Every structure is written in structure tokens, then in C-alpha cells.
């Protein structure tokens, strides 16, 4: 029996891709797609040729996070062309193929696997320095498929995104163990939504009366600071939103023997950048989270 013809085609496609990175998470909603999107923006800003492949078939959020909602994939004689944000940042997602973005994709495993295979076989990426693969949460069919299909061409490793809560960390252990079982190196763990940080002057201030009513005193506080203590205007206020008394992702990473890449705070500006499909590195738009993300990316 000869080699699997699909794998031969995939190997040909991947021959022009230098590095392949998977972005994983144990749970949904922890910021995996946000991280994949910002990682891709950052690599592209460093002048690398970047491809972002969204294989979260049931919940593709990548088109929106890259500002590409409503775009279509085109077919050329070389294959499916990714949708380009910039000439060096191409994106492929099932989100581009859905006639109605509000419609749920209810597909069973084999059909999902079929699409992932088709993405790998048919998308013409050209020369890439990095292919970032945004996987769905958990360890299911899609994960096994992508690993099996890319195994022969080599996967550089996986980045696991989590929040500091125990419920999310428990699932990270499963992700790490999945990677170990399938032989994918864990490049590291990112703790996202690690406390809330924003400029003090962006907060709202409330005064609670004795009867328990809240009154908005934001203007009064800001006026007071401006006049009496202007040096406080530059402060960034941070608060531990989630309980990380267990040591969070850093301790867990140490215990599991995988690198810890760093913490990214909950930053309203990063949420806005993701909603608007923008990079948070341009124009200092995410003053709080961008430096943290940058440090993480530099470690890779
Ligand atoms: P996942 O891919 O893990 O399901 P998303 O990346 O879709 O999660 O993130 C869920 C929501 O949280 C999105 O609205 C996103 O903009 C927001 N978000 C993610 N990380 C942060 C952060 N560090 N600060 C603020 N909002 C964030």
C-alpha cells in the first residue's frame, strides 16, 4: 500500500510553510481566538509572512477579530485563496463560507474532519513563515485530525490559553496531556484575563448611600484628581477579578513541566480591538495588554 494521497498533497502544500503553531484551550471563552488574532497581527507587524487558519468550525470568530466579516474566499487555479488583511497576513476560516453568519453549524465529526483536510489540501498559502492554527476548545475530533494530518510535515508546537480559575486550569491539564500523547510540544501556557487593569481615569466611581443606593460620582472624583492630585491621573488600576490563590497557570505549568509564557490582564481596550477587528499593537490602542502580549510573543 502506497502513501495516503491526501497526506502527500498536504505535505506539498506545507512544504512552503516554515513554522506551524497550534493555539489551544481547554474551555471556550478564555481568549484563545483573541490571542491567535493578536499573535498573527504581531507576527505580521514584525514583517513575517503569516497565515491564520481557523478550524473552530462550530464557532468561527476569527473573521470578525481580523476585521474580515462578510468577506468571501476565492478560488484560483492554485486553490482557495485566503482572505488578506495585509499582503503578509492571510486568513482562512469556515466563517467565510457560511451564507448566514447567524446560522449554527451542526456538523458531526467526519464532516468537520473532511473540511479540515480540505483546508490543508486546497488552501494556497504560498510562502509562509508562520501558520497559526486556531483550534476549537477542548480535545476533540478537530484536534486529532489536525495533528494527524500535519504530523508528517512537523508541528512546531502548541500554545495553551487559559484563565486563572481552577475550572479552566483543570482543563489545561487535559490539553497538556493530549499534547504529550500525540507528541506535540507545548510551547507554553498563557494566562489570560489575569486580573483587570485599566487607567484609573477610565473607571467609574460610585458612592453607596446608607440606604444602599449607588450614586455616580465619577465626575466629582476626576475633577478632584485633576485639581488636587494630577500625578494620580497616570495610574493604572488593577484588580484580581478571579481567584488565583491556587497559584494560577504559572504554578500549574511548573507542576506539569511546561513553560509558562506570561499573563495578559483583562483589558477593555483589548476587548474593543477584538470587537473591531484591529491589532492592539498599533497606535498604543491597548496600553495595558499590548506590552504583556508582546513579551509573551517575544518568548516564542
Ligand atoms: P475563545 O476563543 O477562548 O472562545 P475569545 O477569544 O472569543 O475566546 O474571547 C472571548 C471574549 O473575551 C471576546 O469578546 C474577547 O474580545 C474577550 N477577551 C479575550 N481576552 C480578553 C482580555 N485579555 N481582555 C478583555 N477582553 C478579552
From TrEMBL:
Binding-site residues, ATP: 26-33
Keyword set, alphabetical order: 4Fe-4S, ATP-binding, Cytoplasm, Iron, Iron-sulfur, Metal-binding, Nucleotide-binding
Other noteworthy facts: Although plant and algal NBP35 proteins lack the characteristic CXXC motif in the C-terminus, thought to be required for Fe-S cluster binding, they can bind a [4Fe-4S] cluster in the C-terminus. Also, in this linage, no CFD1 partner protein homolog as found in other eukaryotes can be found.
Cofactor: [4Fe-4S] cluster
Presence of the UniProt keyword ATP-binding in the record: yes
Cellular compartment(s): Cytoplasm
Cofactor: binding comment: Binds 3 [4Fe-4S] clusters per homodimer. Contains two stable clusters in the N-termini and one labile, bridging cluster between subunits of the homodimer.
Role played: Component of the cytosolic iron-sulfur (Fe-S) protein assembly (CIA) machinery. Required for maturation of extramitochondrial Fe-S proteins. Functions as Fe-S scaffold, mediating the de novo assembly of an Fe-S cluster and its transfer to target apoproteins. Essential for embryo development.
Subunit record text: Homodimer and homotetramer. Predominantly homodimeric.
One Gene Ontology cellular component: cytosol
Naturally occurring in which organism (per UniProt): Carya illinoinensis (Pecan)
Protein name: Cytosolic Fe-S cluster assembly factor NBP35
Domain of life: Eukaryota
Similarity remark: Belongs to the Mrp/NBP35 ATP-binding proteins family. NUBP1/NBP35 subfamily.
GO terms for MF: 4 iron, 4 sulfur cluster binding; ATP binding; ATP-dependent FeS chaperone activity; metal ion binding
One BP annotation, GO: iron-sulfur cluster assembly
